[in-house]
Please model this.
Amino acid sequence: MNLLHITDIHFGPYHWDVNDDLVLERLNAFDADIVLNTGDMTSDSLQVEFQQMQGFLSKLECPNVVSILGNHDKYSKRSHEMFREYIYDGRFIHPKDKTKVTKDKLFFSPINMRIGDYFTDVNFLRTFKVNGETVLLVCIDTTLFQSDFGFVEEQILASIKDEIAAIKYDRLLMLTHHPILDSDEDPLINTKRMTDFALDIGIEASFCGHTHELEIVELSNIVEGKKFRQFMIGSLCSVNIHRESNMFCTYENFGTPDEVITIVRMFPTDDGVEFVETKLG
Ligand SMILES: [Fe+2]
Model:
């Protein structure tokens, strides 16, 4: 299974000043089975930024592209609507018990909003068949409305766990925007709960962005023999951090003895962009 991981593209003011087509050409050169896009597609959750992201994603040749929301994508009351319209219109997972919900602004008033779906969290499952195996992706919305901090609703986790139990799969991966094994000045608030959840459902790996920095870590529960790896990578193209962190990542033969992880850094040049690869054996 070959995975291509992109994150924090930030269309709008944060977007990189390099021709997107050059980046897309390089992305499409990798034979990906699934593309993982871990959020912050926009700078300010504007409609035009979601539309730009839609245009970018439409140029990816891989048919299996999974995108999730980041904190910058959740600045608008209509973020979840724009996600449906421009990114992915699937079935979102609702809280198991709505009366026990603690996450702020998980629902807006349908009367005030004048929209059909006033449930704001974008949690969903996707399955793909790759090399005869069923790969289940658990896509969790860690964002809070108009906040850079993250939080995951307990009642959503309960629903997700129930749904996963009803699905037959061979490999289980998780996507979050905020890292669950690291933090920055705008962290996920309930990281401990999320790492427990990840170990509990038995994920093989989690993929995230948010910090715009590269870090690959493994969490092991030695007593129970459970472990997973978290892949947090730098931004694909945004101008608010050092150039060394402009990157995307490819995972070839992921999770096998032949696995090759390649960090592809991107540096602007006078006539385009230079790609610098670093392979992790
Ligand atoms: Fe970001």
Notes: The chain has one domain: 3-280.
